[in-house]
Amino acid sequence: MEKKLKVGILGGTGMVGQRFISLLEQHPWFEVTTIAASPRSAGQTYEAAVGPRWKMDTPIPESVKQMVVMDVNEVEKVAATVDFVFSAVDMAKEEIKRIEEAYAKTETPVVSNNSAHRWTPDVPMVIPEINPEHYEVIHHQKQRLGTSRGFIAVKPNCSVQSYVPALTAWMEFEPYEVVATTYQAISGAGKNFQDWPEMVENVIPYIGGEEEKSEQEPLRIWGHIKDGVIEKAAGPVITCQCIRVPVLDGHTAAAFVKFKKKVTKEQLIEKLRSYRGFPQEAALPSAPKQFIQYMEEENRPQVRADVDYEKGMGISIGRVREDHVYDFKFVGLSHNTVRGAAGGSVLSAEALVAKGYIKAKE
């Protein structure tokens, strides 16, 4: 790419916004030129607006420290400075819907980390290795919005990344029933242990809204476009429990699967290791070379050892074994704020650029 695209971060002072800024610091295609946040942060430098709330391991990039934060509600003003935006705003669901559509209607593509539009029928919800064909629904969305280049695309919930890639790799064996339990890191709530000391040595067996998302969003990912909207798949049927555990980064899943077709452990492992998608074929900048790694050790994957696999963009699967109630069971691990949040959105934006949906404004 001869000239980098100008990118805005909506909600740039929160944890996911911070992760976007960290990931984009040396990006070969994208340059952060605008950061927008709530009116209370607007007018301050980014460094001052974030203050002691910076949660990344690496320092605030020098390129954004003195950038003056804009008011996210000044849609036209913000949109005029960028080619497209990443959305990580912290608002009520209906407010997020309104503001993301408002940006799209300024002819500014919106790649959102938020859940507000995940079930809007003509908004693609994509894991680029799994269902990039869903981007084709953007044509119908543009007709509804009355835009020529503005649209909204979203990524799915962070919890599904740890088991859906494996199930996708096994689709030819027709999985039809899945029981999953996710053990989810506290950064998924936008917090660390300093913010949330109650989580030290604690487990909370409830995360609001997560179980429904974990059961239903995979069906939309596996769905198809019909009459200008995405229809979710009928199966496999998934039932899920979501538990908050005292881990900073990394969502682990323990899953049990029934298959319609006879399959061996060796076949399942081979399918994981050989699985590739559009990001690998197109050699996108943020794409992991090996999307799914299979780990032979009985005690892997582990959060400390494996969460940063492929810079947090890869999926780690282990303990595939036969089960005496279900056919097989396995354990999965994904980085919830990289692959599951900002990194997944960055990869989606790269795919949208590669497919011609995002271009520089003229």
From TrEMBL:
InterPro entries found in the cross-reference section: ASADH-related (IPR051823), Asp_semi-ald_DH_pep-lack (IPR005676), NAD(P)-bd_dom_sf (IPR036291), Semialdehyde_DH_NAD-bd (IPR000534), Semialdhyde_DH_dimer_dom (IPR012280)
A GO MF label: aspartate-semialdehyde dehydrogenase activity
Active site, renumbered: 158 (acyl-thioester intermediate), 251 (proton acceptor)
Pfam families hit by this protein: Semialdhyde_dh, Semialdhyde_dhC
Family annotation (SUPFAM superfamilies): Glyceraldehyde-3-phosphate dehydrogenase-like, C-terminal domain (SSF55347), NAD(P)-binding Rossmann-fold domains (SSF51735)
This protein's record includes keyword DNA damage: no
EC annotation from Swiss-Prot or TrEMBL: 1.2.1.11
Domain Semialdehyde dehydrogenase NAD-binding, first and last residues per copy: 6-138
Keyword terms of this UniProt record: NADP, Oxidoreductase
One Gene Ontology term from the biological process aspect of the record: threonine biosynthetic process
Family indicated by similarity: Belongs to the aspartate-semialdehyde dehydrogenase family.
NCBIfam families, per database record: asd_EA, PRK08664.1
Protein name (Swiss-Prot/TrEMBL): Aspartate-semialdehyde dehydrogenase
